[in-house]
What we know:
By secondary structure, the protein is mostly beta strands. It has strands at residues 5-6, 9-10, 14-18, 23-27, 38-42, 46-50, 63-66, 74-76, 88-92, 101-105, 118-122, 128-131, 142-145, 151-154, 157-158, 163-164, 168-172, 177-181, 192-195, 201-204, 217-221, 228-232, 243-247, 250-254, 267-271, 276-279. It has a domain at 31-131: Thrombin, subunit H (Beta Barrel), CATH 2.40.10. The strands form 8 sheets. The chain has a 4-stranded antiparallel beta sheet, with no helix packed on it. The radius of gyration is 18 Å and the shape is globular.
Amino acid sequence: xxxxxxxxxxxxxxxxxxxxxxxxxxxxxxxxxxxxxxxxxxxxxxxxxxxxxxxxxxxxxxxxxxxxxxxxxxxxxxxxxxxxxxxxxxxxxxxxxxxxxxxxxxxxxxxxxxxxxxxxxxxxxxxxxxxxxxxxxxxxxxxxxxxxxxxxxxxxxxxxxxxxxxxxxxxxxxxxxxxxxxxxxxxxxxxxxxxxxxxxxxxxxxxxxxxxxxxxxxxxxxxxxxxxxxxxxxxxxxxxxxxxxxxxxxxxxxxxxxxxxxxxxxxxxxxxxxxxxxxxxxxxxxxxxxxxxxxx
Length: 296
């Protein structure tokens, strides 16, 4: 987990949750303080922090990486497409680039407008190659990579969608093909998503356009021709702008903002086998939201 918003300021802090000890371990600080950015892991465990927002509330184009075992982050070339925040990013399997490649989807640009743009980014040069667009511009949506490599995006905010949307699309980078899936049960943005071990795509928490903060969760069954949403047990408390990762048969959520926009420091785990949420005995060192996260 890296960066985020703490007491109204962008953070450089990076921490890792040790699953054996259930303690938050400090890693080297980011070079640039940022929040509302994207994170992913490329190649042999190199962590990428990309875009986001700085303390001036401007969208930034900076990219940096932390290699496994390294004592410091290394700055890479800026994104040629300009600043991006509230975007989604996923590693792309390849061997041609010195640093690796990622795909970035949607987000807000330097003019703070919602985007439907998709780019393939060469991390070694910062060059952003345009790809076929998303179905609608969207920010702060839930997303995940399916086992077959496709990317699913659900909900989010987009003016072209009339505000907060229920729209769900699955996007295939290799062919530039997208397909619409059944819409979510309710409009959500600032929600989080991941793949469950049983092959369903789960969406957790989020906020409606009326300001309601949700603890409710739903899962999309991805059986071709029989896709449908099913309820999951609600989280222990409502959350927006929080971190969420799936590991084994569990989902861990941490931080974010709750009812009344209060910053949260709590961390919870959902056990798929039992369908039960449990509070972890390892609160974040500080209450924070809008972090980047990835599974190392």
